[in-house]
Amino acid sequence: MDIVYRKAVRGDIPAIEKLFMEMLRSVNSCEDAAGYEDRYLNKFFSESDGVIYVSEAEGGVIGYISVELHDSFIYLDDLSVAEKSRGKGIGTKLIEFAERYGRDKSVVTAVLHVEKSNEKAYRLYTRLGYAVTADEGSRYRMAKQLLR
């Protein structure tokens, strides 16, 4: 399977929303998860607020990461890979794109949150160099230095 990585375009929004719902159902173990607020994703297409990268295979989006840009850090807002495509390094590659974006914008740190119940994601982030910076009840805040 050939996988292409690229910046998202507005036409990808339905696929991104579907992957977001799949991720919420998986992490929260429920079927009645609420999706994004109306027009929430629009901010990622302005380039001044952040970006979304997608992975695409066989003509469809199979993963994405949304990245918010702040003054001194990027925030990895959401990461989702289709269940059938997990375990193939797609999430790792999307995170690498996000981190490169942060370095290109000269931000020092990448920050994310991970649910404590999402052990696979926690292991992935730890393996990629993220460390817990705060315990926030049901989730951890994690960070990684991008620039020294």
How would you describe this protein?
- There is one protein chain.
- The chain has a 7-stranded mixed sheet with strand order 1-2-3-4-5-7-6.
- By secondary structure, the chain is of the alpha+beta class.
- The longest helix has 16 residues, at 13-28.
- A hairpin with a 3-residue loop joins β3 (60-69) and β4 (73-81).
- It has helices at residues 13-28, 90-104, 119-127; strands at residues 4-7, 50-57, 60-69, 73-81, 109-115, 131-135, 139-145.
- The radius of gyration is 15 Å and the shape is globular.
- It is built from 3 helices and 7 strands.
Task: Output the radius of gyration.
Answer: 15 Å
Q: Classify the beta-strand content into a percent band.
A: 25-35%
Task: List unreliable stretches of 5+ residues.
Answer: none
Shape: globular
Total number of helices: 3
Let me know the number of strands.
Answer: 7
Structural class: alpha+beta
Q: Which strands sit side by side, in order, in the main sheet?
A: 1-2-3-4-5-7-6
Mean pLDDT: 91
Could you tell me how far the N terminus lies from the C terminus, measured between alpha carbons in angstroms? 37 Å
Fraction in helix:
25-40%
* Series of secondary-structure elements, N-terminal to C-terminal: EHEEEHEHEE
